[in-house]
Amino acid sequence: WHYKDSSDYNNNVDETKYDVEHGKSWAVVVLRQNTTRLINETVFTLINTSRTLTSPFTIVSPIVVFYADGRNSFTVNNYVLPPIRSAIAIASAQYGQMLRSTLVQNLSSSSDSSSNRSVQLLNTFQIGSLLVDPLSAQYQNLHPNAPFVGQLATTLGYIYIYLISAMVVGGAIKFLSQYVPKVHWVDVIVFRVFNGFFQAFIISLIYSLIVLWLFGIHSGSLFMRYWMFNWLSSMVFGIIIVLFTTNLGPFGNSILTIFIMLMLAGSTLQLALELSHPFYRYGYGLPLYHIINGGRHLLFNSYSNFGLNVGVLLAYFFSMWLIASVTSVFWIKRQQKKAAQQSQQAKTEKKEQKITTVVRR
């Protein structure tokens, strides 16, 4: 909890949204100015009046809570809002008890006229809700994590993209392996690059169309941004798979599985890293964290350092693409050299076999 004076926000309630909009706070609790003064004046007016109040006491919610569960629904609804609700409930109960005690004490010492006492009791009933819950709160969700398909799209959806990428990339590598000895290594590398771009292009297009259709979004500009972001995400997944499987072979699948588990643990699928054990802060440097938070920003317009998200993904893609290209050239040349040696050895054995046959004849 960080306590600030209203003057820090120019005494404007709406300006407090800035901290939530820009990720400086998970939620902001605002107690409106002069709230307790207005409530106290109302109670003392009720005590001192001898006429029935024609209009009951009304006031806008004394407390306003701004939050955005689109940033991380699990964290906001399970770790941010519960302590806020609890603190407001305790403060309201204590303040309400003080008001009721003050009211009873002053009414007992006021005029004993039965008509005046009846008026005071009637007025008390009119502000009953104020005496029970004087500090009622209004909750404003600036960027809701809704509809539910959005939650699936920013969690299980990206796991689905990874699995599809793994199957497609694995199939492409297996298909190419039979042609490596017969095709120049440059052609193999070029085919792998263009094939990876095209496959990620199609996967991200289909995924983006389905999500935005179910989400009810018809903005062309948002579609292009979301599609391009998912295309980049799919290419990052693909190049990670290529890097592990090309260099480590069958053993690479086990290492890749461990790497994916680490990414999932540090990706804020549920609990935000700020509230997690410090060990999981490594997630800030892994691509899945930036993919999920970037996707939430595009779908829910919630806070995320989107420029940083895209920058990290681009850095991962180009660095891993460079490493994968260099290592692929090495392994392809080695495989082609081995295939050439085996072919030469087979020809030599066949030639020797023919010579032996001629000698026997």
UniProtKB/TrEMBL annotation:
This is DUF3533 domain-containing protein. One of its GO terms (cellular component) is membrane. Keywords: Membrane, Transmembrane, Transmembrane helix. Pfam families: DUF3533. The chain crosses the membrane at residues 157-177, 189-215, 227-248, 255-273, 306-332. The keyword Transmembrane helix applies. It comes from the Eukaryota. Residues 1-321 form the DUF3533 domain. Residues 342-361 are annotated as: Disordered. It comes from Adineta steineri. InterPro entries: DUF3533 (IPR022703), MNNG_permease-like (IPR053001).
